[in-house]
Design a protein that fits this description.
It comes from Furfurilactobacillus milii. Keywords: Cell membrane, Membrane, Transmembrane, Transmembrane helix, Transport. It is found in: Cell membrane. Belongs to the binding-protein-dependent transport system permease family. With about 270 residues, the protein is mainly α. The chain has one domain: MetI-like fold (Orthogonal Bundle). About 70% of the residues lie in helices and about 0% in strands. It contains 14 helices and two strands, in the order H-H-H-H-H-H-H-H-H-H-H-H-H-E-E-H. The protein has a two-stranded antiparallel sheet. Strand 1 and strand 2 form a beta hairpin.
């Protein structure tokens, strides 16, 4: 019993330290967002501002066309997520239930692409999109991310956990593969699908490097790229940068806090609910 209590205590301590480590950057971001410019570079640094500078948020919002950036981020995130979920569901079903020539080889080939660093794909993707005159358009921000084999692999594992008897019974009743997919497979896998969708929303919303490369005007740029407005050759306005970072990241924090149970359930789930 003593060993069990010691183990539980150690676990609580480790989790508490981990939580503090994760929260410190967010606390520092909020603290800096409410400071004056001299306070942001003060040594030693201060955690609590002497006078809360709430106007930093208003100044940061008007320093760049953040409403346009917000709308762009919303459009790109929504379309990318819906598109990726659609392709993921179809591909996962094909690899899980359908039989076709080269199925296992093709799956292994796609699986091997997960070992390719994303940075290696930046130049080929950029050249391809430029050939189609898609640079500085929504297409450049959306098309490369309409498919993810990590998502396909994750959902395929969930589909594989669904008993084959359901599929065979549906076929005997005259159900088509399309009908079975959307009326049986998808509802039974909603936790995994929701988790994949949430991860894609967070990843698309926070994407910085790719939008920076393929956009050159404010009309199609997204929120993370807009944060560059506070950095120039003269230096960085840290208080405004942190204020802008706060309202950029706030929607994703809300999404994660509200739907975190689906992420955990979707990734850890290996079978049907009891």
């Amino acid at each position: 019993m003593t060993k069990k209590r010691i183990s539980q205590s150690l676990l609580i301590i480790i989790l508490t330290l981990g939580a503090i480590t994760m929260l410190v950057p967010f606390i520092w971001m909020l603290s800096t967002a409410l400071k004056t410019a001299p306070e942001t570079v003060k040594v030693p640094p201060t955690w609590i501002p002497k006078h809360l500078q709430w106007q930093n948020f208003v100044t940061a919002w008007h320093a760049a066309p953040f409403l346009t950036y917000f709308i762009n981020s919303l459009i790109v995130t929504t379309v990318t997520t819906i598109g990726q979920l659609f392709t993921t569901i179809l591909a996962a079903f094909a690899f899980s239930r359908l039989n076709f020539y080269g199925k296992h080889f093709l799956f292994a080939l796609f699986l091997s692409t997960m070992m390719v660093p994303g940075e290696m794909l930046i130049i080929p993707n950029f050249v391809t999109l430029s050939k189609f005159s898609l640079i500085n358009t929504y297409g450049a921000l959306i098309i490369p991310w309409l498919a993810s084999f990590f998502a396909v692999f994750t959902l395929r594992q969930t589909f594989n956990a669904i008993p084959n008897e359901l599929y065979y019974a549906a076929k005997l009743d005259g159900s088509s593969d399309w009908h079975f997919l959307w009326t049986m497979m998808v509802p039974l896998s909603k936790s995994a699908i929701t988790a994949i969708g949430i991860l894609e929303v967070i990843g698309s919303w926070n994407s910085f490097m790719w939008p920076l490369i393929v956009t050159n005007t404010a009309k199609v740029r997204t929120l993370p790229v807009g944060l560059n407005a506070f950095t120039s050759d003269a230096g960085t306005q840290f208080q405004l940068l942190m204020a802008a970072s706060t309202f950029v990241i706030l929607p994703m924090i809300i999404v994660y806090l509200c739907l975190q149970k689906y992420i955990i359930a979707g990734i850890s789930k290996s079978g049907l609910k009891g």
